[in-house]
Amino acid sequence: MPIDPTQYKTPLFDAMVSLAEARKISFHTPGHKSGKGIATRFVKYVGHKIFSIDLTTLDEVDSLQRPTGVIKEAQELAAKAYGADRSFFLVNGTSVGNHAMVMSACGPGSGILMARNCHKSVVAGTILAGATPHYIHPEVDIALRMTMNVSFDAVKAAIEAHPWIKTLFVTSPNYYGICADLSKIIPFAHERGMAVLVDEAHGPHLGFHPELPPSALSLGADMCVQSTHKIIGGMTQASMMHIRGGRLDAGTLAGVLKFVQTTSPSYILMASLDLARMQMATEGEKLLEKTLTLARDAREHINKIPGLYCLDKETVMTKGLGGLDETKLAINVSGMGLSGYEVSQTLNLEYGIQVEMSDPFHVLVIVSIGDRNEDLDLLVDALESISEKSKARHGTSTTGMVLPRFNIVHGLTPREAFFAAHEYAPVEGSAGRLSSEIVTVYPPGIPLLVPGEVITEEVITYLTGVSGLGGFVDGLSEDGRIGVVKAG
Predict the structure, then answer these.
(1) Is the pTM for the entire model greater than 0.85?
(2) Contacts of 365 (CB under 8 A, 6+ apart)
(3) Ordered structural domains, the chain, with CATH
């Protein structure tokens, strides 16, 4: 398709550079005053220019809380590029976008249908909004030892069982790149009078290459949020939120964002959003073509290595889901008799390779527009070496570990449990109590326990197993105990 010439514009970045080059005397924040007050070691490493564009709300560079100038123009260009009615820059990551989506669509006491493989920030959104979640189980592949995504049949059944609920929340793609079948889910939900919210954190590049799964907006989502920093050229914490279709009010969303976002946003992060949008809109297909080629070549080589299996598109399509983002390499390592945590640590310490995340059974590699042939070659060579060495050494087997079923036995709503009187108990002795915390293995940040849910022996076994393998459990106290609602 021909490139829209307006997408070459970067209004916010240009205004920031112009202001920096004007060298005006600053009696405003930030206090380092264009780098003059920054520690010398910092300046020596990153240079002076970055500090000259570390700005605050000024006439020349607009205000994120109430944009009327270059930020407004930059967000309008983003909306045009992504096919939204309105787009919003986020500087607190996609987590704040999830908070805002739930809060703008739901009020106290309202219900929301949610895929249970949601990020913990979605649960936090229900606590902030006072909404009551009703969960949809994702498909779990026992052979692959992987939570896939929600199927259309599961979503359809949940909607039919809860006809009074008017909001559906889906995560697509998930951390492993597996998409829900939004092409069926969204029209069905709309027919039932529901608004559809999508956590598309891992899909800011969808829609910019024909061989990637379609974006949520292109399939009719009413609102979605994307981590521009995950695959394309945004800086860490830089995300975007999009709304379209008229089922939800953009003014309400803008008002909620004023509450949950900082009033001192980073202009450097916002500039990276402006530039990342320009980059995708003008050369995204070319950049992603190279990225897909690298990922596909690596997947092919990895699947020839003994003891390894890298999830492929064909396998996902047999599950009745919405496809696979092939830039994600979800590599099952359990065939080597090693845990994902062990392989991740070995890659890091022995080969100088850092992966995105690991779980008991997998390591996850993100291939992005910043990767090169030699990067993937080194990864494949390292995995071949680990596979060969695993034949001669005994690793920590995960044979006895199983994925826990998501526990949705409720005693209280998440908000009730979060604000209830609580205490801390040893994890091993907490079965039958109500959790007062969001407890998750992080990453990926999918809650194993939500406030108000009953703690089961199955979850306890999994949490202690993950800790024993070296995984990080988030949501416990500093001394490793779990928050529980006080009895009575």
Answers:
(1) yes
(2) 298, 328, 329, 331, 355, 356, 379
(3) 285-390 (3.90.1150.10), 414-485 (3.90.105.10)
